[in-house]
Amino acid sequence: MALIKCKECGEKVSTKAKNCPSCGAKAPKKTSIVTWGVLVLIVLAIFGAIHTESNLTPEQRKAIEERRTSDIKEKEAARIKKSELEAKAKLENTRKGFHCLSSFDGSHAGVKKLVKEKMRDPKSFEHIETQISPVNDNGTHNLIMKYRAKNGLGGFSVNSASAIIDNESCKAVITSLK
Fold this sequence. Notes:
Elements: E1 3-5, E2 12-14, H1 33-54, H2 58-96, H3 109-117, E3 126-132, E4 140-150, E5 156-166, E6 172-177
Antiparallel strand pairs: 1-2, 3-4, 4-5, 5-6
């Protein structure tokens, strides 16, 4: 059992004591073996990295730098290619008219709204599918939407609506309801 000085009052305290008998300050905790082991591993890793780097010849350092530069250029080229592909896909989706359709169910919100306005029971509307043509020379798309709704007798029937969609604004004009 050894005696050490208390950090608070300076009196001698046993290493086994949990508190200083003079002032009541807590004794410092011992550093665990695991903590020391981790610290040693970190120091060895840093030393190894520095030592390995310092033992390289100028040719090896140049090769490593060229590899790093090459990797950076490859990553940048891949990023540019990905960006170009995304831009092409967005342009193709716009040409096909998909930018006007809901990503949730594939319907056109404007056509749904116009159809519901003409129905007796708009709450019974159920979207089935929507087909849209690529943009034509007039800058519009032809759209056909199939839906299910209650008829006058309370039964459900499948109907369709045709519309013309402006490619720029995505505004719809209903051409027929069947």
